[in-house]
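Lay summary. Proteins are chains of building blocks that fold into shapes, and those shapes determine what they do. In this project we predict the shape from the chain. Here is one chain we studied, written as its sequence of building blocks.
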Amino acid sequence: MTATKGEFFNPAKLSSRDKAEATDHTARAIIAAEASARDKKTEKLKALRLQQEAEAEPKAPPAKKRRSPAKPAAGRP
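And here is the predicted shape, written in a compact code that computers can read:
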């Protein structure tokens, strides 16, 4: 079988509107795929964070140090 020009090239030219629609469709598909992937990643990370928080022991706040009472000033006139 011999390859012909008609098999590889579209003999009819596309209008600029058709080209714009194809580009728009492709761009919207890419954006939707990225948004879906971002949402899945966000949900996965949120689940992992909640799991870590549930496993972690709640830490008590550090005890505050008591300050010693102020010493009276020595012999003021």
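What the prediction tells us: DSSP finds two helices and no strands in the chain.
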